[in-house]
Structures are given as C-alpha cells and as structure tokens.
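Thought: the user wants the 3D structure for the chain below. I'll pass the sequence to the structure tool as-is, report back what it returns, then summarize two notable features.
Action: structure_tool
Action Input:
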Amino acid sequence: MVSIAVFLLLGYISANSLEGVNQSIRVEEEKILGCCCDIERVIEENKISEVIIALPLADNKQMSEIINKLDGKVNKIKFTPELNGTYTFNSQVENYDGLMIISANINFVKGFNRVLKRVIDIIVSFLGVLFLIPLTILIWLKTDKKERKEGLFFTQERIGRNGEKIIIYKYRSMVTGADKILEKMMKEDPKIREEYEKNKKLKNDPRVTKIGEFLRRTSLDEFPQFINVLKGEMSFVGPRPYLPREKKDMGIYYEKIVKSKPGITGMWQTHGRSETDFEERLILDEYYYRNWSLWLDVVIIIKTIKNVVGRKGAY
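Observation:
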C-alpha cells in the first residue's frame, strides 16, 4: 500500500520585520500573507497544520522568535538549513549527543540494485529496438531522396561508464559534415561561438535538416540508442552521454558523472532539456550520481514522457 501526501501551499510570511533580516522577495505579491506579527492570525484563520521556515542563515535569536510564535499552534515545523549546495535526495536527520546533524548517503548504483537496473534496461531496450523497425520505415518514407543517400542513421563517439569510449547510434538530424560546418560558423561569428560554448547547442541551428527538426522536437532522434542500452553500453536513465571534446569542460564533475552509465534520458532532460546550459547539466548529472534510486528513475521516466508529449524544451 502506497500513501501519498498532498500539500496545499497557502502563501508566504515575510520575515523582514525581524531585526537583521533583509531578504529580497521573489514570490507573487498576492501570495504574501503578512509579516511575522501576523503569523498567529494567519494560522488560526486558515487552520494551518504545517509551516516551513525558509531562513537558512537565521541566527538563534531570529529562529527562536519565529518558533515561539508557532509553538503549540501547528502540528509540524520544517526548516531549510544552509548546506552550501550539498543537498541530497537521501538524507536523514540524526541526534548526536544532543546535536542535530544531517547525514547523507551517496546512492551509487551497485550490488543487487545494479542487477535490477540492468534487467529493466534489457526489457525496455528490447521493446525499443522492436519499435525501431516500423519507426525507421516511417522516417525513410518521410525523408527526401537526397537525404536518404546520406543514410538515416549516424554514429558518434561519446564518453561511457568509467571514461570508456562508446559509439552511440542516432537518427541523422543534421547535414553531412556538420562538425566542420560548426567550426567554420564559430570562426566567422563570435555570437555563435559564445552560444555553443555555453550550451553545447545552437537554438536555431542551420545544420538541422527538415526531417531532423521534427525528430529533435519529438526526441525520436534518440531512439536508436536503445541498441546501446541493449548492448550494455548505456542505460535507459542516466547522465548525458558527453562528447570526448567536452571532457575538459566537465572539470570536477567528470570523475563522478562517468561512474554511471550514460542514459537516453536523465535529470537534465527532465529539468529544462535544451533550455539548460552546460554547467546546469553537469550539476544535474552529478546529482543523479549522488542520489540514485529506482524511484528517482521512475520519476525521471514519467517526467520524460510528459516533456516529450508536450514537446517541452527540445530543439
């Protein structure tokens, strides 16, 4: 039996009336219900059961003033601590000789979980490869004769698990010689260079073919990678398969990200997809390495389906 808790966010209380607090307000004005002096009234009028205190840098005096106003009036008080970005999906609060500490586990895929993840990959990739047959026929029929001569598929070298080089399969969405064309474009136009170096993508890429634009928008260009999943080189869910030339740009994230098999979908595809820049993708992929769980994979798959159906963030 699975229990699901549903929360209704009523609004926000500004803490700027407290001495020493001066936070910039970034929420809708109509969602601000008042200041700290209004807490008791707001709780009573709206029968509030839980309150979240989002003052990670508050001192003891400020926290005590707020908690005293809440004491005995709500069922639960939560707060967001300052963790300098080291938050994890799998964290626990523990009591250490009267001192509250937060413990964090790195959920790297190993042992039985790795076997289970591989079994799921085999089942999903087998179904994906079967679907490739009618999909390829359909794409062949929709592709111009000139483009057919160049082939419907193309291969590309990417970074696999533990830094090993793998060859991934994709439907061709760009003209032949796209890499050389990109080099020329970057030399001739500083704005194009800046955009590509930041995002590793171009929003209005002139190298994309007519059928390629459709394939990218629907994410169908990624489907041949189910062959890589079936071969064991990739996983259905995992970090982005990075290009070898991107290794130096990955910096400190590289060693952690490559410990997982790259995936057809993953954190960055479900959190903005092409709208995220390169740095954001690295942060999301490192998060996946530190916080992996089968449930996280399920959430990513559901979000991927929603994004693909809604064609959100793809280009």
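Final Answer: Structure generated. The longest strand covers residues 153-159. The beta strands are 12-14, 32-35, 50-53, 76-79, 91-96, 99-104, 153-159, 165-171, 235-237, 263-265.
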